[in-house]
Design a protein that fits this description.
By secondary structure, the chain is mainly α. The chain has 13 helices and no strands. The radius of gyration is 31 Å and the shape is globular.
Length: about 400
């Protein structure tokens, strides 16, 4: 026996040199372009932005983030400062604002950096998992809170006397806790070994496991969307029935009743027979008419508000969740084959829902509008007194 490991056969030298050269070229390509294998396997390419494009994109996304922070901060401050808004029914608005504010503070900045690098994740595998958990948790909490708000509005309109959550702060707090626990049920599985997030060669992607994808998208979007549509339909139907029953559009009838009542009150001093009874009957009729008008207006406002909320919510999130549901079945579970520009555009369209929520509620809520105006003008003194005076003035106009 003898050792031949140090002997170099001359007949294989040329072949070995070519293998060394090929190996060196492959190593050089990987060094120059670390996403080469990722692009080849997934069909996904990083975006190559010029400096002016990066500036424009960065400024636009920074403005979206800043406005989202400002709007949702105003909601939290308004409900905490103004006594008239400090009601159990508005706790859901605070929970929604906190979820949207969390999206703007702990999620959007990292997405902006990733977008400016063309879609490459720069923060490592450990923080990739943390980031995905925060993103899923906050966005799901926002969507689930919108769902609970729609149910709360429906029950508050159709069962004003038997629905206790609006008067019970503890019950409303339990509902909010349930929202965040459901959101956690979607966030935790990747940390518990059910489905692993994707992090390879600059990619940070939520787990593409088929079962987890169906579960997460159904709980985070499709079920809340279905509930919101059902609640909107029921409120809209209740408003139509109320309008058909009371016929409030006949303003001349109300004017005639008020004229007769005023004439009866004027003649009451003369005390002719039967005037007092007639006056009392007309007063009861007017009171019932005003109460019916108030109920009808509240139902109409609830239907309009919820319709706008559902519409904006669907426009913002539906394209993204359709893409998220279909992606693992099209691309497989190892990566994403969706173009970066399409994925990021639909993602930011979903984030825009967090920007719009505080302004939608302010548009339909006079108290929130007045509070926003006072806070933005730094008029903190006597803000509760001014809001109470406005409420009394509006009540006298009805």
């Amino acid at each position: 026996m003898f050792n031949i490991s140090g002997i170099e056969p001359t007949f294989n030298k040329k072949e070995d040199n070519s293998e060394v050269i090929n190996g060196s070229l492959q190593l050089l390509l990987v060094t120059i372009s670390p996403t080469a294998m990722w692009n080849e396997s997934c069909g996904e390419q990083l975006q190559d932005f010029t400096r002016p494009e990066k500036i424009v994109i960065g400024v636009m996304l920074a403005i979206i983030t800043a406005v989202t922070v400002m709007g949702n901060t105003l909601v939290v401050i308004a409900v905490c400062v103004v006594k008239k808004l400090r009601q159990p029914s508005n706790y859901l608005l605070v929970s929604l604002a906190v979820a949207d504010l969390s999206v703007a503070i702990v999620v959007m900045p990292f997405v902006i950096v990733t977008d400016l690098t063309g879609g490459k994740w720069l923060f490592g595998e450990v923080f990739c998992n943390i980031f995905i958990g925060m993103d899923v948790m906050c966005c799901t909490a926002s969507i689930m809170t919108l769902c609970v708000i729609s149910v709360d509005r429906y029950l508050g309109i159709t069962r004003p006397l038997t629905y206790p959550a609006r008067q019970n702060g503890q019950l409303m707090a339990k509902m909010i806790l349930g929202v965040w626990l459901v959101s956690a049920s979607i966030t935790l599985p990747p940390f518990c070994g059910w489905a692993k997030n994707v992090h390879t060669a600059g990619v940070c992607l939520i787990s593409q496991d088929f079962g987890y994808t169906i579960y997460s998208t159904a709980v985070a979007f499709y079920i809340p969307m279905l509930v919101m549509l059902v609640m909107y339909y029921k409120i809209f139907r209740a408003a139509r029935k109320s309008g058909a029953k009371h016929r409030f559009t006949d303003l001349s009838r109300r004017e005639r009743l008020e004229t007769v009542a005023n004439e009866a009150l004027r003649m009451q001093g003369l005390k002719p027979p039967g005037v007092a009874e007639e006056c009392a009957a007309l007063s009861r009729l007017l009171t019932r008419e005003r109460r019916n008008i108030s109920i009808f207006k509240r139902e109409q406002k609830a239907a309009t508000t919820l319709g706008v909320i559902v519409g904006v919510f669907a426009v913002c999130w539906l394209p993204f969740f359709i893409l998220s549901t279909a992606r693992p079945f099209i691309c497989g579970v190892e990566c994403s084959c969706v173009p970066i520009w399409l994925e990021r555009t639909l993602l930011w369209l979903g984030y825009a829902n967090s920007l719009m929520n505080p302004f939608i509620y302010a548009f339909f809520n006079r108290d929130l509008r007045s509070t926003y105006r006072d806070l933005l003008r730094c008029r903190y003194r006597n803000i509760n007194r001014r809001l109470s005076a406005v409420g009394v003035h509006e009540a006298l106009k009805v």
